[in-house]
Amino acid sequence: MSEYNNIKKESLKPTLWHHYSSMKEVVEKGSKVIVSGNGAVIRDLEGKEYIDGLSMLWVVNAGHNRREIIEAMKEQMDLIGYASLFGGYSNAPAVLAASKLKEIAPAGLNRVFFVSGGSEAVETAIKMSRQYFQVKGQGGRYKVISRKEAYHGVTLGALSATGIRVYRQPFEPLVPGFHHVSAPYCYRCEFNKEPGSCNLECAEAIAQAIEWEGPKTVAAVILEPVMNALGAITPPEGYFRRVQEITRQYGVLLIIDEVVCAFGRIGAMFASEIFNIHPDMMVLAKGLTSGYAPLGAVLAKEELGQAFDDYMFIHGLTFGGHTLSTTATLKNIEVIQSEALAQKSMEMGSYLIQGLQTLRRYRTVGDIRGMGLLTAIEYVADKETRKKIPGNVRFAFKVEQLAWDRGLYLCRASVDKTYVAPPLVVSREQINRIIDILDESIGLAEKDFLG
């Protein structure tokens, strides 16, 4: 396409402000412009192919260029492009999508509030929990317990729940009332315990925080089933059972953030099914539409929804429940179910983890972990002591760049973690290629780092 020539020129200018990027680096090296994709493969401006090793930020679960989803959106566009959900009005795809989510979600999550994305969904759940307790005559309950190193989004309320210091610091002071406790990070346990021989101190930390803050002041606990930003952290056995006992004991709402984990990513439609979690609210986005249009949602228990039947939830988003987004959701869920992509994720995830284990031979590879097609590699400066990679080394970023040059898209590299989460339609051959590229890229990065 002729306009692509202009795109190439424009990508060398600081006009498009890239997210989470140093614009100086972008201008110096040029933007990596993605123009097409199919299945688990994407292509750049020059037509070079890459395996999408991260589902474009854990989003494209059903794969790129799904004609079923695209055609359904085209058909909807012929009817109406936008119809608001404000003031008692709605649109047909939003009504049907809400009904479908109620049908497939864990029992009891009967109320669906649509927004535009994950940060907005977390923001909505926090506001919903605060107003819920006001309606119930417990307006003193406004505090939220989250975890250190958790990622729940970057709008101001969601960022207050996020526990990653580097994301929080530039915007402090944040929203008051948020408290962060230790994560179930077994590789670097803050309590110096080993899995299977601990007393779930990381879960007990939630009870201690509630007691410290004052039980009558705490509205909610928000947790990811598998912590993503920290590197595919799966909880120890019994963790969520104990968390649920704690939240019920204190009458605190449990918000489960499934923005990344849901829609087959870790081997079930919802991670809550795997861990036997029964949340009061569930937060969804990303794989909800497989990225074909922006959408997020909060699913709430019937009891919580009923509390608002005589009161207005004073909240709304212009594009929440957009006709094209909810149309994409309906077809996306159909694809995931009809092709058993959750089961495939579990099978391909086992194959991926098995292949990644071969990378443990590198001196910088400290841990490899994950569930389904949500995996991560954590790098270290010293395996014996688990000494962290210095921040200025940007080791994982170097691995990402080396992998890109060899035909693998990873993106979202941190200082010391590489995230690997291809679309659920990925093949064994593509997984083999992912591992081969990582093998070569880590080897080169390590040689540069250790000499």
UniProtKB/TrEMBL annotation:
Q: What is its EC number?
A: 2.6.1.-
Arranged from A to Z, the UniProt key words for this protein are: Aminotransferase, Pyridoxal phosphate, Transferase
GO MF assignments: pyridoxal phosphate binding; transaminase activity
Instruction: Give the CDD domains listed for this entry.
Output: OAT_like
Q: Which InterPro entries match?
A: Aminotrans_3, Aminotrans_3_PPA_site, PyrdxlP-dep_Trfase, PyrdxlP-dep_Trfase_major, PyrdxlP-dep_Trfase_small
- Listed transmembrane segments: none
- What PANTHER family does its record include? AMINOTRANSFERASE, AMINOTRANSFERASE CLASS-III
Q: What is the designated name of this protein?
A: Aminotransferase
**Annotated source species:** Psychracetigena formicireducens
Its taxonomic placement starts with: Bacteria, Bacillati, Candidatus Lithacetigenota, Candidatus Psychracetigena
